[in-house]
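Collaborator request, handled under Task 6.
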Amino acid sequence: MSSVKPQTEQVPELWIMGVAPDQGRDEIIRDYLAAAGYQTRLAAVDQIGTERPLGIVLDISPHSLDGWGLLLQIKSNPACRNIPVLPVFLSEKGKVGGVFPVAGFFTLPLDDHHLSERLAVYGLTEEVETWDLQALVVSRSGEEKLSKLLEAVGFEVVKGYTGKEALALVSLHPKYLAFSNLMLPDMSAFELLEKFRLFPYSHNMPVFVLLKDELKEGEKKAMSREIAHLVSKKQLTQEEFLKYLRNRA
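Structure tokens returned to the collaborator:
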């Protein structure tokens, strides 16, 4: 009686980017991901043309290989902009110091069709005809194009021009989702995300980050320093890190 070989189960693969090979900085996070059943590899953006990962774990620390530049490359390219990206802070020795689980990224100037499509895919437009839902837009400029698009979909748009103003708004009334420029006059979108998690009304609110179409080297370094101020002084445990991954599933 001939035996039939079982089919090899396809293991979900996550790509790790922004980390130089042969330095060992990827070992801890790869061990964490392996414990959750993920296969991982160090990868480059140009590999996306032939293969497609389940998601990308991207180092945006000062020790990264141009993490911010990679983020912009990924999110400005229609071929790969829909791949989920989880920004993380890896120390010089690879310890996981912080995780920033934003709902997604969009590049400016906005692609109207892409934004509408993604909101529908995320299931964020299903209830706008049934309920009065508010969308928070946090930007020094007000982002008129984005605001009009959200209103056309059915959201009531509420604007905050600084991070502090946005925090005051979510403390008073729940918002269904939020968009924020990467850099605000008083804080970064990542700091704002951390503070949103402290408020009952905004703890689970999806937050999308708006990226400029170009980031200068000085801006990248400033953002990396800003992120460094937010991370915990101790290493996140495997369990603490995997909570963020499960939330994104």
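The cover message to the collaborator said: "Confidence is low (pLDDT under 50) at residues 1-8. Residues 14-102+215-247 form a domain with the Rossmann fold fold (CATH 3.40.50.2300). Please let us know whether this matches your experimental observations."
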